[in-house]
Each structure stands twice: as structure tokens, then as C-alpha cells.
Amino acid sequence: MTQAAGMTAGLQRRLLALLLLPLLLLALLNTWFDFRSAGNAALQQDRQLLSLVPLLADSVVAPGAGERAPPVLLMAPAMDAFLSERQDASAFAIVGVDGRVLVGADWLTGLPPTTRDAEFSSEEFDGTTYRIVSQRMQTAAGELTLRLADGSDPRQQWLRQLWFKVAVPNLVLAVAGFFAINWAVRRALRPLIALKEAVEHRSPRDLTAIDESTSPDEVRPLVASLNRLFDLVNAQAESQRRFVADAAHQLRTPLAGLQAQVEAWAQAVSVDRYKQKDLPAHTQRAQAAITLGADQIAKLRQATRRTSQLASQLLALSRVDARSADALPMQRVDLKQLCEVVFEGQLDNAAAKDIDLGLDAVTVHANGYEWLLRELLANLLDNALHYTPQGGSVTLRCGRDPQDRRPFVEIEDDGPGVPEAERERVLERFYRLPGAGGEGTGLGLAIADEIARMHHSALQLSTGHGGRGLRVTLRLPELLQSA
Fold first, then answer.
1. Cα distances (Å, whole numbers) of residue 338 to 373, 377, 406
2. Co-location of 152 and 119 in the same domain
3. Which of 148, 276, 290, 395 is most buried, by the most CB atoms less than 10 A from its CB?
4. Which residues have C-beta within 8 Å of that of residue 213, sequence separation ≥ 6?
């Protein structure tokens, strides 16, 4: 994911967190209120149990007939009503001083309280959690411990039914809220995501302004700032391109004149050296001076040729960078005819190095800019001839890919090639392989790569036939319909 994608995802996460966090807090607050309500009800229930203990004590009307006989009970109406209403959720016990249950539920056994104050506790029996009050009181049968249990304690019921009554609804609410808020956030951020994708998929050469009317009000200041930045960058780049183009154009004329003079001078020196062969021996000093001058002129001729080539490449690069071609429609280009023209223009250079220059072209058409494709092929072919050793071979091809039927142009040589690790870097401007021979400028492949990008494609560098040399392929994505 790119930085723009990460920014959008981070914004979505923050919005989801800010919206879901209040929902979670409200759910927790609702749970707390439920618990407080249950606690208040339980407190009232404790008070009710405590108020029934004296009635249970008054229900003991007489001691038992024997030492271990249970006391005689006559339930008070309020006690009888309490036990009747909660037949399966209430119990009582009258416990002696030794902790033995004299009357009531046997499971309510236990030592009596150490004081006469009421004691409350919770105990589970037979799957029900009971709230129990225990208190020592004086009765008609003497001092006894009275215990009253109520299994309908709201707080205990609330704890037992917590999952079904609170957790599940809140969980369902949280999940539904997450999907609903996520959908709402995505829909609300759709214009921002569209803006991000529009900027992300832009060509590095496309610095046109973004339409502010399609952006939300909150994002328009950002879009306006981006447009101002695009204008500044575009103006600076255009100024640099004009400078390079003007400088290269101005240099071409004096360099052409200088090269013509040097070439004429070199030819004259060659003629003088030829005439000096028949001179007497006493003129050997003059011959040596002529030979030294010829060597210096040869070096000067090479330097002027390299400088002229660099000026031509800089001018071509400025024309490619100008992006003026983007505003023009692509035309139907005959790739076979184009390859033949470029092929004929390099025959002399190939013959000078005794290089077997071949042409393998079939009739195929493509959409493109003819003058840019000619510049691309010229640079690639010149680069191949430059680095292919004497006696090698270079082949220029065009045709259709057998798999996707897309038109392509290709140049293959059997020179030193380019290591796979360096194939990305050789497309950079002014970059040359370490240890590369010759006097190259490092602009040929860079210009070709810029032209490939203007055709919405990319150069593909691979190893040549037999694992030797370099093969450079350009596949053109769009085919022109037949006329």
C-alpha cells in the first residue's frame, strides 16, 4: 500500500475509533446502570428480608416437647405469604445454638452469628443463588438463630443472566454499529479516496490542475494548494526544459561548424602525411611533427563528435520532456517502414565497426508518435552499435507478440550486455555501467525510456539470444484499427 493509501486507511481507522468508542462507552454505561438498578433492587430485597426476621421469630410460639424436639411454629401471615409467593425460590431455618437445624431447610445449617447483628451472605444451592440473612434473636423457645433465604435476588439473577440480557445485545449492537459506521465512513470518504487515486495514478509528467468542483468543501483548500504546487513545479520544469533546449540548440550550430573545420583539418593532415612519405631522410623531424599533430587532431575530432552527439541528445531529451506530444493525438505508425528508415541511417556506422546489422521486420501498425518512435529506435540502435565489439551483430526487429498480439519493436545485440541488477539504473539519465568502455553520455536509454512512457508502456531489458548481449523490447499497448 502506498503512502496515500496508508493515509486514507489511517483516517478511516481514526474515524471508526472515534465513532465506535462512544458506542462502547454507552454500552458500558448502560451495563453499569443495569447493575446499579439490580443493586438497588437487591438492597430493597435485603431490607425486606431483614424486616421478615422478627416475624419469623414471632412465629415460634413454644419450645419443643423434648430436648431435641423442634419448637412449635405458627407462621405469621406475612411470613406465610412470603414463602407461598416464592415456593421454589425461598427457604427458612431455625437453628439451635450448636448450629443444628431444628426446623426448615437442612442446607441452611451453620454456626450462629457471633453477635446479635444481622448478617447477609449469598450461597448457591440446587442451581439457584440465594440471598441469606442470619440473626440471633430471643424467641418463645429461647435464643435461636433465624435464617431466611430468598432466591429471587435481582442482583444474583442479573449476574446469572448477564450474557443473555446484556452481553449479547451489546455485542450485536457493537457489531452492527461497526458495519454501519464503516459503511458510512467509506461512503463519506469516497471523494477523498477518488482524489487519492487520481493523484496516485497520474503520470510524473502530468502536472495539470485538479478539478476543485469535484472535491468536498473540506478538501478544496488542499486541492487548491496542490494545484498551486503543480503550477510552481510545472513552471520550474518548463524553465529548465527551455534552458536545456535553448542551450542545446545554440550549441549545435557552432559545434557543427567546429566539427566541419576539424574534419577538413584532419583530411588535410592525412594528405600531408601521405605526401611526406617520399621526402628525403633529413625531413624526418618534420614528419614526426606532422604525425604528432595528426594524433592531436584525431583526438580533437573525437571530442567534437561526442560534444555534438551530447548536444543532439540533450535537445532530443528536452523535446521528449516538453510533453507537448501529450496534447496531440496519436497517429497510425507503420513500424516496418520506420525500422527501415532507421536501419538505413545506421548502415555506415555498422560498416565502420564491421558489425553485421540485420533487419527482421514484418508489416505492422501501431498507435504512436512517429517522430518520437524514430528517436527511440535511433538511440537504441546507436547504443547497441556503440557497445557491440567489432565483428559482432545487431538486429532490429518489429512485429506482433505471438501471445497478446501487441505490436512491438526490438533491438538485440551480442555485446557485453547489462547485468540484471543494473537494468533499472541504466535507464537513469547520465548513468553508465562501471567499467563500461567507449565514450557514451548515458542518455540514449534514458531518452528511449521517456519515449516509452509517453506511449504508456515501458522498456523491457533482457538477455539476448544464447545468453549473450542485450535485448531491448518496447510493446505498444494500443493497436490502430485497420483502415
1. 8, 9, 17
2. yes
3. 148
4. none
* 83-87, 224-228, 275-279, 317-321: segment of lowest average pLDDT: 275-279
Q: In the predicted model, is pLDDT for residue 448 greater than 80? A: yes
Per residue in 73-108, pLDDT tens? 888 888 888 888 877 788 899 888 888 888 888 888
Q: Where is the domain boundary, 163, 179, 203?
A: 163
Q: For the chain, what percentages of helix, strand and coil (3-state, to nearest 5) are there? A: 55, 15, 25
Q: Could you write out the DSSP letters of every residue in 264-331?
A: HHHHHHHHHHHHGGGS-GGGHHHHHHHHHHHHHHHHHHHHHHHHHHHHHHHHHHHHHHT-GGGGSPPE
The pLDDT of residue 285 is: 52
User: Residue 4: is its pLDDT beyond 50?
Assistant: no
**pLDDT tens digits, residue range 359-411?**
999 999 998 888 888 888 988 898 888 888 888 999 999 999 888 888 999 99
Please tell me the number of Cα atoms within 13 Å of 318 on its side-chain side. Answer: 18
What cell numbers appear for 79 in the block?
411470613
Tell me the C-alpha distance between 445 and 422, whole Å: 13
Residue 362 CB-half CA count within 13 A: 6
Same structural domain, 345 and 462: yes
**Nearest residue to 128 via CA among 151, 105, 158, 149:** 151
Q: Are residues 74 and 121 in the same domain?
A: yes
User: Could you tell me how many residues make up the chain?
Assistant: 483
The b/e string for 46-62 (b: 16+ C-beta within 10 A; e otherwise) is: beebeebbebbbbbbee
**Helix (H), strand (E) at residue 136:** strand 128-139
